[in-house]
Design brief:
With 350 residues, the chain is mainly alpha-helical. The protein has 15 helices and two strands.
Length: 350
């Protein structure tokens, strides 16, 4: 028995023991990293939930602060006292506001978002028809502005002080301060009224007519994206200029690596971190800019629906639009935070 145990011990080489210890340590480190990432995601999700609850309170109270009586806004001014009382009770306006809020929040979570008094349709059916239009423009605007902004920012950072850098950063500064509605009117005047190559109004989804969809998307997409392209370009340029001064970049150059390899394999990953955060902010600005863009181009999206609902005091539609916008923006910010934590592990520790 002793000889068998001695043989087993002798057969286990120090290298194999060392490898086993390293593998166990690697599994433990991986588990700890996943645990940190899980806590980080739960923390961000909890913060997002708190934001949505606060926005829901604000949305519910704000709609009742709009001047005018919601009953008269729904039925008009030519109603009897009995009709007014019936509608007043049907809208639960005779109950305390906190009870109305809890009832409304419960219905919202269950998907019962009420009925539009102006359109005589359920709010969900209205948003189902209009939300894809706004989301289509918004998502494409983020993709275009992020890709173009990153490329231009890298070019500026790698050509600092040269003519290309001066030209691109001047254009970026000019585009960043241009209001989307001004760009929309300018683009409509040049490409639609003068040149006649693009339509002045309307929108068609690609599933209906691809060619017409491209023509109706160009001007709204340009108006929504130019400002974000300018902001992303400036942020990416600043990140590149900061990173290329670091010691590890000089070490990479001393090893004889090409500038392309240094730029995209070593400098890009660290320089792009602020752009990831900026993407979430761009999405919020694009959602806000869609309101004016949809009005100018007569696009039947969620932005124009919200404006018409506010003007007609269509309370259910206003509340649903505010909450849906808050949900979309909060989720985009949550995804950006998670992406930031994946790219930079130091964020998870902090």
């Amino acid at each position: 028995m002793m000889s068998f145990c001695t043989g087993v011990i002798k057969s286990t080489s120090p290298a194999r023991v060392h490898r086993g210890i390293l593998e166990a340590g690697g599994r433990t480190a991986g588990f700890l990293e996943r645990q940190k990432m899980g806590r980080y995601m739960l923390k961000r999700a909890g913060q997002a939930l708190v934001v949505l609850v606060l926005v829901s309170i604000f949305a519910y109270l704000l709609t009742y602060m709009i001047p005018g009586d919601p009953v008269y806004a729904m039925l008009g001014g030519d109603i009897t006292k009995e009709q007014y009382d019936i509608a007043y009770q049907a809208m639960h306006l005779d109950q305390p506001i906190y009870i109305r809020y809890v009832r409304w929040l419960g219905d919202f979570v269950r998907g019962n978002w009420g009925k539009s008094y102006r359109y005589s349709q359920t709010v969900t059916s209205l948003l189902r028809a209009r939300l894809p239009v706004t989301m289509y423009l918004g998502v494409w605007s983020i993709i275009v502005s992020t890709l173009i902004g990153i490329i231009l920012g890298v070019l500026c950072g790698t050509h600092r002080g040269q003519f290309l850098d001066s030209l691109l950063i001047t254009c970026a500064n000019f585009g960043a301060v241009m209001p989307p509605f001004w760009l929309a009117v300018l683009g409509m005047y040049i490409f639609a009224l003068k040149l006649g190559i693009l339509p002045t109004h309307g929108f068609v989804l690609p599933t209906e007519n691809l060619g017409e969809s491209i023509r109706t998307t160009v001007l709204p997409l340009i108006a929504l994206s130019v400002g974000s392209i300018g902001g992303t370009t400036r942020q990416m340029r600043s990140g590149m200029l900061d990173v290329i001064r670091q010691d590890y970049i000089r070490t990479a150059r001393s090893k004889g690596l090409t500038e392309r390899s240094i730029t995209w394999k070593h400098a890009f990953r660290n320089a792009v971190l602020p752009v990831v955060t900026l993407t979430g902010m761009c999405f919020r600005n694009i959602v806000a800019g869609a309101i004016s863009i949809e009005q100018i181009f007569a696009i039947g999206g969620m932005g124009s629906l919200m404006i018409n609902a506010i003007l007609s005091k269509d309370v259910a539609v206003v509340q649903a639009c505010i909450m849906l916008t808050a949900i979309v923006v909060t989720l985009s910010n949550l995804l950006v935070d998670i992406a930031y934590g994946v790219i930079d592990p130091r964020i998870r520790v902090e």
